[in-house]
Amino acid sequence: MTVMVPSRTPAQITPGRQALDSALHQLAQAAEHLGLDEGMHAMLATPRRSLTVSVPVRREDGRMDVVQGYRVQHNITRGPAKGGIRFHPATDIHEVTALAMWMTWKCALVGIPYGGAKGGVAVDPATLTTRELERLTRRYVNEILPLIGPEKDIPAPDVGTDEQTMAWIMDTYSVNAGYSVPGVVTGKPTTLGGSLGRAGATSRGVQIVALAALGRSPEGTTVAVQGFGKVGSLAAQFLADAGCKVVAVSDATGAVYRAAGLDVAGLRAWTAESGGVRGYRHADALSHEELLELDVDVLVPAALEGVITAGNAARIRARLIVEGANGPTTPEADEILAAQGATVVPDILANAGGVIVSYLEWVQNTQAYSWSAGEVELKLRDLMESAYGEVRTLAAERGLTLRQAAHVIGVGRVAEAHRMRGLYP
Ligand code: GLU
């Protein structure tokens, strides 16, 4: 079998298809570097299992809407499939497949015993009431029930889902099983077996690798954060706590800038109250494009895929880009940034803190035990710093970008696991 990459007819390319093309391009580069044969490459380029489901939802006015849902298990060779569930109107099977593939490399890179998965429901959660959201979540979980389980596939939060979503998933699965199964999902509320430190784990990981990649005192380092949601807002907070000057942040409602540094805690309080950064009085308004192109030391894209592209990469002035989001930089933009001498700490490394603490949560659940916040943070720091060290060393040895090196390590470990297991029958 050969790897099929559909032709690029612009009219047909959805953002999801673009993300999958990026993921396949990154895999192809790693496969070539590792000298993988065509069969192995094809195996890694295709998901083990993909499920598309139609999810009927009863609306408050009695109408029934039907939305599309997905769960893709890209790889299960190193352990159970692992990855979040995204609620976003633009999600599609291609995007979910790309995100599942990135989970596979991410888990292998940071050395946790999981394969990669992702789920998605094509819906805007902001348009649903809490009860509609609960019905939708429970029905979606019922549709994907045959795939998930603590030893098979463990969902977690992603864009548009949170602790409450995870609690409903845990409950739906447990009611079906007839007993409580906390380990079926991670990112739960701590009252249901969630881990201390999970809520801020992705952001903490972003802070850890950003400071490591900076390689100097963070004092006075200027930072712009694109996406002020679950990951970006806490990443901004942790970077500010470390001494960085967070000068700009954006979210779907707008972008704000203050040369002397934003009061990140004040801005978080404002967004919690008003629903977004727009209208924050202690800063100037900025366009989304201006934020990305600011003359700052560090840029943290922490929202969605495909924001740094061939169209704007040449205007990005940050020397260090730390990807809190999955897939924010296209391969074309990667080349432009590398030629400009910018360093990109790639998603599968920079945002791995979330799945690392998910793993710690799952370990605690399976042992019916819990660790202190300090113990969790130490383990997180240890795994992030050693993965960063390995990536940096390989990149320097072989003249690769950090993304290429991270993929060579992640893909290489999965290919090696396949080789050791052999092919059945
Ligand atoms: N959705 C997060 C990610 O993209 C976390 C996944 C998890 O914790 O399983 O890494």
Structure overview:
This protein is an alpha/beta fold and 425 residues long. 45% of the residues lie in helices and 15% in strands. The protein contains 14 helices and 13 strands. The strands form three sheets. It has a seven-stranded mixed β-sheet with strand order 10-9-8-7-11-12-13, sandwiched between helices. It has a four-stranded mixed β-sheet with strand order 1-2-5-4. α3 links the parallel β4 and β5. α1 crosses α14 and α6 packs across α12. It is globular. The relative contact order is 0.13. The model has no long low-confidence stretch (mean pLDDT 96).
Which secondary structure elements does this structure contain, and how are they paired or packed?
Layout: H1 15-34, H2 38-45, E1 49-58, E2 64-75, E3 81-82, E4 85-87, H3 93-109, E5 116-121, H4 130-144, E6 153-154, H5 163-177, H6 201-214, E7 222-226, H7 230-241, E8 245-251, E9 254-257, H8 264-274, E10 284-286, H9 288-292, E11 298-301, E12 320-322, H10 331-339, E13 343-345, H11 347-350, H12 353-367, H13 373-398, H14 402-421
Parallel strand pairs: 3-6, 4-5, 7-8, 7-11, 11-12, 12-13
Antiparallel strand pairs: 1-2, 2-5, 8-9, 9-10
